[in-house]
Amino acid sequence: MTQDLPDQRRGRLAGRVAVIGGAGSVGPGWGNGRATAVIFAREGATVFLADRDKESLEVTARQIREEGGTAHTAVLDVTEPTAVEAYFDECERAAGRIDVLVNNVGGSRAGGAVELSVEDWESQLRTNLTSAFLACKHVIPVMRRGGGGAIVNTASASGLRWTGAAQVGYAAAKAAVIQLSRVTAVEYAPDRIRVNTVVPGQLHTPMVEARLAHQRADGDVTKLLAQRQARIPLGFMGDGRDTAYAALFLASDEARFVTGTEIVVDGGMTARCD
After folding, report:
1. Residue 218 scores a pLDDT above 90
2. What's residue 26's pLDDT?
3. Are 217 and 224 in contact (CB under 8 A)?
4. Are 264 and 270 in contact (CB under 8 A)?
5. Contact residues for 46 (Cβ-Cβ < 8 A; gap 6+)
6. Residue 222 has pLDDT above 90, yes or no
7. From 87, 170, 188, 245, the catalytic residue
8. Which of 50, 113, 186, 193 is the most buried (most CB within 10 A)?
9. What is the mean pLDDT of residues 17-25?
10. How many C-beta neighbours within 10 Å does residue 169 have?
11. H helix intervals, the chain
């Protein structure tokens, strides 16, 4: 899958230091993390990119550097507390501050309350929720020292409503990410730290071909895409750039009075009553 990512630079993050977790992609094309990393770099940010997949991470960084941007990479397990703490210490030493954090790590596991194993339940919480908590925990002191910042967490429409497939661990974790953002936003507003959430819906990202089709449509990508698109009132699926542009707005000064809220990026899907 390939997508066009127009280069429209306005310097909205000029001079900023941004940390982006999950900045690789599970396959060719523009996943949420890769699109966010490239767009932030195009908008002037120095980006620190973390992902557990070194090869995928380097693909993202290489594109940024080829376009003249500045990218630093680190292979990181964002669910490991000691490693996450050390990573944010390293970023602060290297750049002197952190202005923006985007938590973009996630992944779903099929299964309802009966079918999902306890091990998979705990894994879903670690991957989708604990990762965001740990990053917030360790970036907030850095942002306080720097006089403020913007945190953007990535949730999912599955955290708002039933989206067509039982994935109770993922849905519960992503719902919790939204509330994590709200509570953290209010607590640290006096420190000029804004915290918001992007809530993507049924996007066409590399994850669809790489994983979801095998979980939910017996490997039939065309079938899965048709099922997902049928739920969207706008009649087409978004992609990684739609998540990235929402994150860009929330990270920029254009959103200076926006905190503790969500931008739903789903083509109207969660507004449907059926």
Report:
1. no
2. 79
3. yes
4. yes
5. 16, 17, 18, 70, 71, 72, 95
6. no
7. 170
8. 50
9. 96
10. 26
11. 32-42, 54-66, 81-95, 118-125, 131-146, 168-188, 206-207, 213-216, 221-229, 240-251
3-state secondary structure 123-156: HHHHHHHHHHHHHHHHHHHHHHHHCCEEEEEECC
10 Å Cβ neighbour count for 158?
26
d(CA 237, CA 228): 8
201 phi and psi angles, rounded to 5 deg? -100, -140
Q: What are 178's two structure tokens? A: 């939204």
What confidence tens digit (pLDDT) does each residue in 43-64 have? 999 999 999 999 999 999 999 9
Cα-based distances in Å from 84 to 51, 81, 97, 131, 250? 11, 5, 16, 9, 23
The answer to whether 53 and 173 are in contact (CB under 8 A) is no
The band of 129, judged by pLDDT with boundaries at 50, 70 and 90, is very high
Three-point CA angle 74, 80, 82, nearest 5°: 85
Q: How confident is the model at residue 204 (pLDDT cuts 50, 70, 90)?
A: confident
Q: 128 to each of 9, 52, 122, how far by Cα in Å?
A: 31, 14, 10
170 given a catalytic annotation = yes
Average pLDDT over residues 36-47: 98
Alpha-carbon span 245 to 249, nearest angstrom: 6
Non-local CB neighbours of 55 within 8 Å, separated by 6+ positions: 24
- Whether 54 and 69 have beta carbons less than 8 Å apart is answered as no
Q: Does residue 221 contact residue 256 with C-beta atoms inside 8 Å?
A: no
* Contact present, 35 and 5 (Cβ < 8 Å): yes
**DSSP state string for 167-208:** BHHHHHHHHHHHHHHHHHHHHHGGGTEEEEEEEE-S---HHI
Residue 210 DSSP label: I
241: which 2 tokens?
């750039």
